UniProtKB/TrEMBL annotation, chains A, B:
InterPro entries: aa-tRNA-synt_IIb, aa-tRNA-synth_II, aa-tRNA-synth_II/BPL/LPL, Anticodon-bd, Anticodon-bd_dom_sf, Pro-tRNA-ligase_IIa, Pro-tRNA-synth_IIa_bac-type, Pro-tRNA_synthetase. It catalyses: tRNA(Pro) + L-proline + ATP = L-prolyl-tRNA(Pro) + AMP + diphosphate. It comes from Ancylobacter defluvii. Homodimer. The keyword ATP-binding applies. This is Proline--tRNA ligase. Catalyzes the attachment of proline to tRNA(Pro) in a two-step reaction: proline is first activated by ATP to form Pro-AMP and then transferred to the acceptor end of tRNA(Pro). Its main location: cytoplasm.
Length: 440, 440
């Protein structure tokens, strides 16, 4: 992409309304624009990051055996009356009357609809296990939306729903998602720690929030410091092997980790000196086994091997890609801007032409741009007439992992400058060497 | 994908509620499920087709220079009061009050919001031309939603918006989209004919509906038969060359083509005998130049090269991917089911194991499945215990373009059967030859 033909509305000033660094940087980098309170349009740069995050999530969901569908945003109130949640859900639910005065709502989540689909099509234990997910916009009418896309009203969510014959199989399904989440967050460059969360009336040990540590987090968390160095499960882990999954879950739940609500001071104090970590945390995922809570009242039943019909055991598994954009920035930035992990950077490489109009710099930049584009690399070519200082600032602000700086002085010496955003390392290299490094 | 681990709820009976063939086939093939009147969940097979259609649209939009963004579904009524459309738009607009009693709405289209974004960020003619698009769910509260996803209430739409300094540049932008649409429909296997559409108070010749002929179409159309053999613009067409674009548009508007509303009987009768085609048509796209209709009242202005500020000239360009799924089926099916064009088939290849449990057929199927999957081909492996007849029927119903049929008899002779869905051609081939044909 040529920057001269792109829409990248950089703000040089720090927006006053933004309280946390991710919100400030997303506004400054021209990633989003607020259209109403807690409702954002995603501008080109933001959309690209959002897509890349969704693709990582999708790959890991598919790898675990989950199947993608797409449920609508508008739901019938009747569906929620079946589960009893229509009246329970408070003002966060956006309630709507259509032209025929029917009660509708903008889905804040999809347990009811998914259960309805299961009820319609899944009749036998032979159709199980099943895990269906979608990535769709949700709406929760927060009283006070804030922190940009971190706590917005309209937000993107990946929600998966597992369906199994009984508790034992549901735990295997739960573990599959647990492992998929660990892999997902690691690929997004996040050190997410699974913490036991409230399971409400169902009880048991099968609800976890995945939390990253960040000074701007909304809640206080307590955990063993060794979590920060734990290696995520490998790509080759066998999702059809319950024992391998359980071993991973056991490892990742073996040390102390709790949110404020579930914090146990005595247990925390039993953690060895120097390993006790208390910090602020941001929730980036939540997985939950809820048994027959919806299948029972809604009549989603299957016939077991014994010929007896019984309600299916279910769980739900959420990750918010739009919130993740902000969470990743909270976890990875410096005073100059965002530092994207390579896999989700909007553009992997920036080419900075320091003297547009100069035949040599133009030719070299065009050559770099053509070569990288042909290799399928996402490149942003800064072909604008801005000053060099402004180009450096923009490339750092928007967090381009690799920056190839092309100026007349360097070219006279046969080199371009290659800069790595993460550590600021710079090297003068031939064009060929710079390409080799970026592609390597 | 192994069919035994997939959710593909095939209906053997013809659903009574479905009036048109695409609706019947989408229900029978387990592609969608109605959740409320005119509101559908996309089941796994439907979601895959929808994604493939979106990808074709996206590739052609990007090729033409349009840039992807993502605007929210929920909009503020205030934005629509600025343009004057809040009161004009009738009951089709889903109006909502949020918890603070603010007037909101579910966007039926995005001209206002896009104009607001342009107003905020685009200040100079140097930032133009600009074309921003998104692919997002829209809601139009139809009195009588019908024909499945062909006329639903919640539907997916790609809407693009061009922004230019003046009329002359806006026409170039219009032509870019005209050409991109021709390419898009051709890639989707559709013979879409651009027909002059109403431009309302703006006048001029810059509004076209793209229409495919189908007996179940909702409107009557009249055109020159030669449109059906016209070759679409090549992939290499230069979108930066206004003359090349204009020549293509001229070619595609040179012959008679009109919807009922714009039909001119005298002009139609002037078409040579034997070339007059009157048929039913389905609208699959609509492009529209609307000048300063929104930029003027909303104050979206740029400074021209002369230093004078003026409102930008805009156009909008819509394609409905969810409706396209149905339109493609209307255009491409037979008595056995759907016939997908290769590029948007949910799975390019089906492997039909006629005797699950037989060591030889199992081994051959697994080998085929592993080889094709490793090559990145989307494969559906029917590893269920259904009868052969049922497997044949399913593969044809869901429209798999290539079907590799593996049975003990064939294997004894060293062959599998390769069937082409489109023409039903069958051949007995070695495994290697079958693979070569499918991959070739």
């Amino acid at each position: 992409m040529r920057l001269s033909r792109y829409l990248l509305p950089i703000l040089r000033e720090v927006p006053k309304e933004a309280e946390i660094v991710s919100h400030r940087l997303m506004l400054r980098a021209g990633m989003v624009r607020q259209e109403s309170a807690g409702i954002y349009a995603w501008l080109p740069l933001g959309k690209k990051v959002l897509d890349k995050i969704c693709n990582v999530i999708r790959e890991e969901q598919n790898r675990s055996g989950a199947i993608e569908i797409m449920m609508p945003t508008i739901q019938s109130a009747d569906l929620w009356r079946e589960s009893g949640r229509y009246d329970d859900y408070g003002k966060e639910m956006l309630r709507i009357k259509d032209r025929h005065e029917r009660d509708m709502l903008y889905g804040p989540t999809n347990e009811e609809m998914l259960t309805e689909i299961v009820r319609a099509y899944v009749k036998s234990y032979k159709d199980l296990p099943l895990n269906l997910y979608h990535i769709q916009w949700k709406f929760r009418d927060e009283v006070r939306p804030r922190f940009g896309v971190m706590r917005s009203r309209e937000f993107l969510m990946k929600d998966a729903y597992s369906v199994d014959l009984d508790f034992e199989n549901a735990v295997i399904a739960y573990n599959r998602m647990f492992v998929a989440y660990l892999r997902t967050f690691a690929r997004l460059g996040l050190k997410a720690i699974p913490m036991v969360a409230d399971t409400g009336p169902i009880g048991g040990n099968h609800s976890h929030e995945f939390i990253i540590l960040a000074s701007t987090g909304e809640s206080e968390v307590f955990c063993h410091a060794d979590y920060l160095d734990m290696a995520p499960p490998p790509a080759g882990i066998d999702f059809r092997d319950p024992a391998a999954l359980q071993a991973t879950v056991d490892q990742w739940t073996s040390l102390y980790a709790a949110t404020e609500e579930k914090h146990d001071e005595a247990a925390f104090n039993a953690v060895e000196e120097g390993k006790r970590l208390s910090a602020r945390g941001i929730e980036v995922g939540h997985i939950f086994y809820f048994g027959t809570k919806y299948s029972e009242p809604m009549g989603a039943k299957v016939t077991g091997p014994d010929g007896v019909e019984r309600p299916v055991h279910m769980g739900s598994y959420g990750i918010g890609p739009s919130r993740l954009v902000a969470a990743i920035i909270e976890a990875s930035h410096d005073e100059n801007g965002i530092i994207w992990p390579d896999d989700i950077a909007p553009f992997k490489v920036g080419i900075l032409n320091l003297k547009v109009g100069d035949a040599a710099t133009d030719a070299t930049c065009e050559q770099l741009y053509a070569t990288l584009t042909a290799k399928g690399v996402d490149v942003l070519y800064d072909d604008t007439e801005e000053r060099p200082g402004s180009k450096f600032a923009t490339a750092d602000l928007i967090g381009l992992p690799w920056q190839i700086i092309v100026g007349p002085k360097g070219l006279a010496a046969g080199t371009v400058e290659l800069k790595r955003r993460a550590d600021g390392a710079r090297e003068n290299l031939s064009v060929e060497s710079a390409l080799a490094r970026v592609l390597g």
